[in-house]
Amino acid sequence: MRFFLIAFIVAYSSYSQKRIDSITAKVIDDGLKSYRNKDSLGLKKSINKLYELSNSGKDSLVLAKYFHYKALSYRVRFQYDSAYYYYNTSKSISKDIGDSLNVGRRLLSMAVMQRRAKDYLGSEISSVEALQYLEPIKSYTFLESVYNNLGLVSEELNQDREAIKYYKQAYKISELIEDKSRKEVSFLRFHNNLGLLYQQDSIHNTAVEYFRKGLQFDSLKEKHPIHYALLLENLTYSSIALGKKGFAEENYNEVIQIRENQKDYSDLCITHVLLSEFYTSEKRVGKAKFHANQALEYAKETHNNKRWLQALQKLSELSTVEESNKYLREYMTLNDSLFQQERQLKNQFAKIRYETDKTEKENKELKVENEKTLAEAELQKQRATIGLLLSGISIMFLLSSISFFRFRRKKLLFQSQLQKIEAREQERRQIAKSLHDEVAGDLRLLHRKLEKSFLLEEAQKLELVKDNVRNLSHQLSSVSFEDVPFRDQILNLVSDYFSPDFIIKVNGLKEIDWSEANKSIKRLLYLSLRECIQNCQKYAEASKMTINFSIHKKSVFLDVADNGKGFDTATQKKGIGLLNLQERVQDLNGTLTIESEVGKGTKIIIQTPLNA
């Protein structure tokens, strides 16, 4: 008569757990198929395989799934107390490893089982607990099922307003479900359950509206035949109650045909009970008795106790006095037995939950006690090592002092090296000034005298000597960053050599605060870059050069790369320019790396301290 909530029958085709490999996933999938097909042997094989996999891999996720399938195996055999126990065990393992999704799913299965055993308070508690795990992870598919179960529980407790509220919440959540088929089922379940609520309150006109709205769903019979049968059956029942019996027999027979095709034997007994009632009202006793017997057979086969009692009651009404007494005795015996079973099952559920909660509490207390013991042991260990630490600190202080003086000595040596470099730069500037002002000037006077004496060939040769002297003075001359900032000096340098045939690109120059860099470092970078550009133009036959400045861990990097012809670094010796460049870099505790291949250009990497 309604959509029964079955939490564990959910498609595993999109099952994705990072810790589940393909072999384990196949075992899980095979087990679920066996459960659906009521294949106890196949399900048992999957359970045994899961046990082996959980032991071999020591994987709690697989162990939780093993206990889940153990619960399914007991459900197939209608042993609900054992099924509940294993659901609860699986839930506890998932809870320990922080698997919120499977904790919520197991609680949902437990809540459904409790509701069917008429343990409505227990079902409500399990449902609310499931929400605490499913809502934070936004598992809309299972949240919809939990709220639907809460609606069914409220309806059983005659709390119609609460039931409607929960059904509407379930329907609202179903709008967020991505799976189209699941969303459609939620739509159908909402209209069926609300229709049933009004049907049980004998408000059949409103019930019919909900059933018909569900039946209007596009291609319902083809897409969801089981739900089509359910809605059609409920619509027929309410229509009969309203005195509209025209298509009742035809509708019920169509429902029977669908359920036989779908092997939906549990719900078949419901339809036969309803048909028996219909034929009784039509005074067709033979058919009424036939369908009551059919209902009884299916109810016994599927352990549908409610319909079992209804079938016995119906048969007692339709039979002779002797047969009627037999059915009534069986009814009374079964009713008493079921009452005892339900009571015992409720107690068993409560006992399992109590023992589980008690064990969890004891484990927490034991964990706290162990933590205290470990903390005490750690404290004793710390006290035992405190003397060693004090000794160690003394040694570290001594070593730090030694390290400090070594560092200071190293810094003083480096500063001394800088002073030597500065003195050498001063000498170079003086030599450059002498070459430019004195030697070049004398050569210029001599050149004019030769021209006046018409010794033109000698004058031309002397002009070349004069140009070489001037170039040499420029090479020897240093550069000052006091009047012109380092950034502008570099840009001026690049501009001097830039042309359409030789494109130079500079990166990172503006991103660095050059005021932090030592003057000697900036001079080294400038002269090194000038040497690289001149060598590139002179030897590389390059059309493009890329210059990158960067800082990393108090070191400045200069990367210069061109697209020239390159050379073999293993065979070709360094020229005087590169040797001088290497000497300059090493003087400032830097490194020079040259990478080149024939035909693939050259890359020069210079690393120096940012600040001496």
What this model shows, in words?
There is one protein chain. The protein is mostly helical and 612 residues long. Among the domains are: 264-357, Alpha Horseshoe (Serine Threonine Protein Phosphatase 5, Tetratricopeptide repeat), CATH 1.25.40; 385-478; 486-609, Heat Shock Protein 90 (2-Layer Sandwich), CATH 3.30.565.10. The chain is built from 21 helices and five strands. The protein has helices at residues 22-36, 40-57, 60-76, 80-96, 100-116, 120-134, 140-156, 160-174, 180-200, 204-215, 220-223, 225-241, 248-261, 265-281, 285-302, 305-318, 321-452, 456-476, 486-497, 519-540, 576-587; strands at 503-507, 544-552, 555-562, 591-596, 602-609. A five-stranded mixed β-sheet has the order 1-2-3-5-4, with helices on one face. Helix 20 links the parallel strand 1 (503-507) and strand 2. Helix 8 packs antiparallel against helix 9 (180-200), helix 14 (265-281) runs antiparallel to helix 15 and helix 20 packs antiparallel against helix 21 (576-587). The two termini are 88 Å apart.
